[in-house]
Design goal:
single chain
């Protein structure tokens, strides 16, 4: 469940930020192919990268992972 949510949300966040995969890769000091793999689920980013992506897109890690908080 979280993996599917992450795949959808990471791409949604990048498009909302009006950034290309190459721009994200340059900022994170990684390859564009890694960003593509994150967005297709072929590669899972480590915790550090998830945090950096959340900061870059100005979203929470919970949102990226699709965690819904209940009260």
């Amino acid at each position: 469940m979280f993996k599917e949510n992450f795949i959808i949300n990471i791409k949604r966040a990048r498009k909302s930020a009006k950034m290309t995969q190459q721009q994200v890769a340059d900022i994170l000091n990684t390859s564009r192919s890694n960003i593509t793999k994150y967005e297709t689920g072929a590669l899972e980013p480590n915790l550090e990268t998830i945090g950096l992506l959340a900061e870059l897109y100005n979203v929470s890690t919970d949102w990226l992972l699709g965690i819904k908080k209940t009260n």
